[in-house]
Amino acid sequence: MADESTDHGELNEKDKIDQLSHPEVMALFSEKLAEIMKDPLLIGLPSEPTLDEVNSQIALEHGRAIVVNVRQQDESNTVLPVVVIQNATVHDLKKAIQRHISLKLSREGGPNFVSWKHVWKTYWLLFEGQKLTEDHQPLTHYGIQSKDEVTFIKRLRRK
């Protein structure tokens, strides 16, 4: 027999949601998302993660990705944990850095455009004294493994 709860004036779950206003639905969604984010697999992600961030976290958990810590040589000396696939190239790392920084800036309300062409012309990535000069080379070519640290360093100008 069909669900009789609607015969007694009670609303089923779908009808309840249909009657909520947009702010109420958003509040309910945020509450449920906060519950999901307590899962040990998702700890460390921001409160409103992107699909890319969730997929990266899952890839890390399954051993299909690594974390490369990228140190910014500026006044903040910040270290950014950047996730890339196991067999990533220098180019893949640069793209992951771009996504990470762009997302961080947008969350903080910073500039929404960064000239990455200028950044890569002005800075090298450095790992244990080696400049990561070949974009097509895998990170393993330079000996980079999970949790290793690479640093942005200023390129010297040639006259």
Termini separation (Å)?
85 Å
Mean pLDDT: 83
Helical segment count:
5
Helix content: 25-40%
Form type? elongated
N to C succession of SSEs: HHHEEHHEEE
Percent strand: 15-25%
* Oligomeric composition of the shown chains: single chain
Q: Spans with pLDDT under 50 lasting ≥5 residues?
A: none
Q: How many strand units? A: 5
* Biggest pleated-sheet summary: 5 strands, mixed
What is the spatial order of strands in the main beta sheet? 2-1-5-3-4
CA-based gyration radius? 22 Å
Would you tell me the structural class of the helices and strands? Answer: alpha+beta
Would you write up a description of this structure?
The chain contains five helices and five strands; from the N terminus they run αααββααβββ. With 159 residues, the chain is an alpha+beta fold. It has a five-stranded mixed β-sheet with strand order 2-1-5-3-4. Strand 1 and strand 2 form a beta hairpin. The longest helix has 18 residues, at 90-107. It starts with 12 loop residues before the first helix and ends in a 5-residue tail after the last strand. The relative contact order is 0.12. The model has no long low-confidence stretch (mean pLDDT 83).
Question: What can be said about this structure in brief?
Answer:
The chain has 159 residues and is an alpha+beta fold. It has helices spanning 13-18, 22-36, 51-61, 90-107, 116-122; strands at residues 65-71, 79-85, 123-127, 130-131, 149-154. Strands 2-1-5-3-4 form a five-stranded mixed beta sheet.
